[in-house]
Design a protein that fits this description.
Helix 7 crosses helix 9. The protein is elongated. By secondary structure, it is α+β, with helices and mostly antiparallel strands. The two termini are about 50 Å apart. About 60% of the residues lie in helices and about 10% in strands.
């Protein structure tokens, strides 16, 4: 609010003051008061009116300026009414009361939404754990089937497990509370654990992964990182070229360690490369080579960011894909928290 806008708002007050002044001067002229005295009285009333208007403007402008400053520094703008002080002028008090009522309504709505989301998340996690029981039973039945049936059913069960695992980590990633613990971990151990989880799939495609320079300490949550690596392994298998090659290596920098996951697959088209971490994005390969939810790489990026890691990708069509995961070496990044 500038002074010109404020003056426009005070036009009726100024008009009334002018009429009062003119009426007063008319009374003085009726009593034949000296013109110089009348002029001095007029000038005095004008000065007092202007001082009164400017003082009111300055007081209100100073208050609103503080409100704007508080708003600018707030990350959650809805908390503004809790930060500002109650004004001592009428229209400001009305605005302040409106803000407090709308803020209370917003907070109630957010609390109800958060409760609903938490209940949904708990349901999804419970469902996921329950579904694992019939999957395990199906695997046992599969052990007694003939080889061809066993191979087909086992492959479908692995697909089911992969989608169930995605759903579980998606539910965890949307939780406002941290569901991970950052600890010191051995990178080689983590990579081998992820490879072991997908050993049967790698054996089916006759792929023996290679490991190079992985014996380093990193700070991460081992379960979340194993999930991320598992998604990258599954992608490499899905979009492979025979004979499939998969290599894990590490590069040590001054402030971080880079884990590289390189395959010789079909690669990613240039037009898709910048979008593969977007939620629900399937791209040309996802549509061409079978069903794709577009959630796997999205979850990789979300979970990596929650652990303060960075993930990037480089790829050339028909030449393979290189994923890089960056682990900070700064000890201040070691955040051991209990759930």
């Amino acid at each position: 609010m500038n002074f010109g806008q404020f003056i426009k708002q005070k036009k009726w007050f100024m008009l009334s003051q002018s009429l009062i002044t003119l009426f007063f001067l008319f009374i003085l002229s009726f009593f034949q008061v000296n013109i110089e005295i009348m002029f001095m009285i007029f000038l005095g009333m004008l000065i007092l009116t202007l001082i009164s208007i400017y003082a009111e403007y300055y007081h209100k402008q100073k208050y609103y300026q503080r409100v704007y400053q508080d708003l600018e520094h707030l990350e959650q703008k809805r908390l503004l009414s809790d930060m500002i002080t109650s004004p001592d002028f009428a229209e400001g008090m009305i605005l302040y009361d409106i803000l407090r009522q709308t803020n209370k309504y917003t907070n109630d709505e957010i609390a109800a939404y958060q409760k609903q989301q938490e209940e949904y998340r708990q349901y999804v996690e419970t469902w996921i754990h329950e579904i694992k029981t019939p999957i395990a039973a199906a695997k046992m039945i599969c052990d007694n089937a003939d080889f061809a049936q066993k191979k087909a059913v086992a492959n479908e069960l692995r697909n089911i497990e992969s989608f169930v695992e995605q759903a579980l980590y998606y539910a965890k990633s949307t939780n406002v509370e941290k569901d991970y613990i950052i600890r010191k971990c051995n990178l080689l151990t983590l990579v081998k654990a992820a490879v072991k989880n997908h050993a049967s799939q790698l054996i089916l495609v006759h792929c023996t992964p290679s490991f190079n320079n992985l014996d380093h300490t990193v700070y991460t949550d081992h379960k979340w990182l194993e999930f991320i690596l598992g998604q990258l392994i599954v992608n490499s298998i899905k979009y492979r070229q025979d004979p499939m090659q998969l290599a894990f290596s590490a590069e040590v920098k001054a402030d971080h360690i880079i884990l590289k996951i390189q395959d010789n697959g079909i690669g990613i088209p240039d037009q898709d490369l910048g979008k593969i971490f977007e939620k629900g994005f399937t791209g040309i390969n996802g549509r061409k080579y079978g069903r794709s939810t577009g959630m796997g790489l999205y979850l990789c990026k979300v979970l990596a960011e929650k652990m303060n890691l960075k993930i990037s990708v480089e790829s050339q069509e028909k030449e393979g894909t290189l994923f890089k995961i960056f682990f900070p070496q700064n000890k201040f990044m070691l955040l051991e928290e209990s759930r």
